[in-house]
């Protein structure tokens, strides 16, 4: 089983949106996917509870951070992929969660504030010594998006497809869907491309 941790030490970066859509895309790709919500806000679980499809799965209760390794070990026989959502703060246990990852996905909005804030996340991931990749999220069609990609590329890999600012990402948060399950072809193409990129890293 591969494990993806979605992390960004800034609120509003789009962690939960990325986590749920990657999980759905991986499920549609034939994977047995488990979602874990380690964010006290519980947004990923709330989304999942409004969902009708069986995959991705969630446990009856999310593990306490100190029990994460045990939970992942127990899940290995049943699942191909685990996607973990994390809080925007940096609690002490986050280092352990990052260290459990095969890949850390870092969503970043193309704004000066977000680019300044991403340094703390990069430092935490580097301390954990795990592979990571950035995904530009909530992107406008503007020069600042290209500039943000260039800045991030100096620090690590950047997903080749941006996740644009689209209404369907917000709407599916309420309906329990992924955008790849809707009629929004552009959003679906974005997430499918990001998942294909991520899968290539995990199995490359």
From TrEMBL:
Residues 4-128 form the CobQ/CobB/MinD/ParA nucleotide binding domain. Signal peptide: none annotated. Coiled coil: none annotated. Transmembrane segments: none annotated. SUPFAM superfamilies: P-loop containing nucleoside triphosphate hydrolases. InterPro entries: CobQ/CobB/MinD/ParA_Nub-bd_dom, DNA_Partitioning_ATPase, P-loop_NTPase. It comes from the Bacteria. This is Chromosome partitioning protein. It comes from Gemmobacter megaterium.
């Amino acid at each position: 089983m591969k494990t993806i941790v979605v992390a960004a030490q800034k609120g509003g970066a789009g962690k939960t949106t990325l986590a749920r859509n990657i999980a759905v895309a991986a499920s549609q790709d034939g994977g047995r996917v488990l979602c874990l919500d380690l964010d006290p806000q519980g947004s990923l679980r709330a989304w999942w509870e409004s969902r009708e499809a069986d995959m991705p799965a969630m446990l009856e209760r999310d593990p306490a951070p100190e029990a994460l390794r045990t939970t992942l070990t127990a899940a290995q026989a049943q699942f191909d992929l685990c996607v973990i959502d994390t809080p925007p703060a940096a609690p002490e246990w986050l280092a352990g969660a990052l260290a459990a990852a095969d890949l850390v996905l870092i969503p970043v909005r193309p704004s000066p504030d977000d680019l300044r804030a991403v340094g703390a996340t990069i430092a935490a991931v580097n301390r954990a010594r795990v592979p990571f990749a950035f995904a530009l999220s909530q992107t406008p069609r503007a020069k600042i998006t290209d500039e943000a990609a260039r800045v991030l590329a100096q620090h690590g890999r950047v997903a080749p497809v941006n996740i644009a600012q689209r209404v369907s990402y917000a709407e599916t948060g309420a309906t329990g869907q992924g955008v790849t399950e809707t009629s929004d072809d552009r959003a679906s193409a974005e997430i499918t491309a990001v998942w294909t990129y991520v899968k290539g890293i995990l199995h490359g």
